[in-house]
Amino acid sequence: MNWHLVQVNIARFIKPVEDPANADFMNVLDRVNALAEGSPGFVWRLTGEGNNATDLKPFEDPQIAINMSVWESVDALGAFVYRNMDHRGVMRRRREWFEPREVYMALWWVPAGRLPTIEDANAKLELLEKLGPTPEAFT
Q1: Helix 74-83 crosses helix 85-92 at what angle (to 10 degrees)?
Q2: Between 85-92 and 23-37, two packed helices, what is the crossing angle to 10 degrees?
Q3: What are the b/e assignments for 44-71, b being 16+ CB within 10 Å?
Q4: What are the pLDDT digits (tens) for 28-52?
Q5: Are the C-beta atoms of 72 and 43 separated by less than 8 Å?
Q6: Using one digit for the tens of pLDDT, what is the confidence trace for 65-115?
Q7: How far is CA 35 from CA 27, 40, 85, 100, 127, in A?
Q8: What is the Cα–Cα distance from 100 to 27, expressed in whole angstroms?
Q9: Minimal CA–CA distance to 37: which of 84, 91, 74?
Q10: Are 45 and 100 a contacting pair, CB within 8 Å?
Q11: Could you tell me the CA-to-CA distances from 135 to 106, 107, 126, 127 in Å, in that order?
């Protein structure tokens, strides 16, 4: 059976999403998402009504944003996250827009062809927070 890697990351905006302080982040989303979609090994990403997931409010706190995607391998995800200069630029500036969190990201494997749900993501984040890294949810 073939497997794909799911990544989820969440972040709590310091200010409301629509605040001008978040403009640089919001303005780069379409470009970075397009780069992800064009990257080798990209399979799928969570989107809302627009071209990103910032309008989705899967948590009680409306300031929390979610990003979730599926990749063919750890190497494919790593190449995009760490070697793509546009994405790295956003990561370097994340403290300008988001509050620090202890557990903000989880990875897990799914059978190829299966897409994760927001409920899956919440369960994996909770598992990681409760038990630390395990084969079911890791960093």
Answers
A1: 70
A2: 150
A3: ebbeeeeebbbebebeeeeebbbbbbbb
A4: 999 999 999 999 999 999 998 888 8
A5: yes
A6: 999 999 999 999 999 998 888 888 888 999 999 999 999 999 999 999 999
A7: 14, 10, 10, 26, 30
A8: 22
A9: 84
A10: no
A11: 11, 9, 14, 11
Nearest by Cα to 68 from 125, 27, 22:
125
> Contact 65/90 with Cβ under 8 angstroms?
no
For residue 100, give both structure tokens: 């620090």
User: Which amino acid would we find at residue 36?
Assistant: A
DSSP output for the chain: --EEEEEEEEEEBSS-TTSGGGHHHHHHHHHHHHHHHTSTTEEEE---SSSSSTT---SSSTTEEEEEEEES-HHHHHHHHHH-HHHHHHHHTHHHHB---SS-EEEEEEETTPPP-HHHHHHHHHHHHHH-SBTTBB-
Beta carbons within 10 angstroms of residue 13's beta carbon:
20
